[in-house]
Amino acid sequence: MDLETVSAEEFGAGLHGIGLNLLVRNVQSEVAFLSEIFQMTSHRVSDDFAIMAYSGQLFQLHSDATYHANPMLTLLPENPPRGAGIEIRLYDTDPEQAVERAERFGAHILQHPTDKPHGLREAYILCENGYVWVPSRPRT
């Protein structure tokens, strides 16, 4: 499927497995964050929607306005952080490089790269929507 021209109906019908859809205040801003820091690829970017690709996997960003009739919108807190309780783990991203890019971007680093007992070296980076992004690599 061509991610630049696929219709919403065809895209939705083509999804399988598990999906991730993040509600964000500003789609363009979140796309810039993910593209710059984690080198993700974006498709069909608009003020309301984007398809993001990371390591061969797709997920979606939707603006709050697109969820006007969705019951989940009523669960969003008025004040940040919005994404509390979820870690989005990026196993194919070097944590040192991601933190370096995040600092240049002005993102908030919750934890600099650290060796963890479960065999990974990882960092914790908070986006403006309150989601915690965890670039990780096996310890060497």
What's the layout of helices and strands?
Layout: H1 8-14, E1 21-24, H2 27-38, E2 41-43, E3 49-54, E4 57-63, E5 87-90, H3 95-105, E6 108-115, E7 120-126, E8 132-138
Parallel strand pairs: 1-4, 5-8
Antiparallel strand pairs: 2-3, 3-4, 6-7, 7-8
Helix pairs in contact: 2-3
Describe the structure.
The protein is of the alpha/beta class and 140 residues long. The chain has one domain (8-138): Roll (2,3-Dihydroxybiphenyl 1,2-Dioxygenase, domain 1). Helix content is 21%, strand content 33%. It has helices spanning 8-14, 27-38, 95-105; strands at 21-24, 41-43, 49-54, 57-63, 87-90, 108-115, 120-126, 132-138. The strands form 2 sheets. Strands 1-4-3-2 form a 4-stranded mixed β-sheet, with helices on one face. Strands 5-8-7-6 form a 4-stranded mixed β-sheet, with helices on one face. A hairpin with a 4-residue loop joins strand 6 (108-115) and strand 7 (120-126). Helix 2 (27-38) packs across helix 3 (95-105). It is globular.
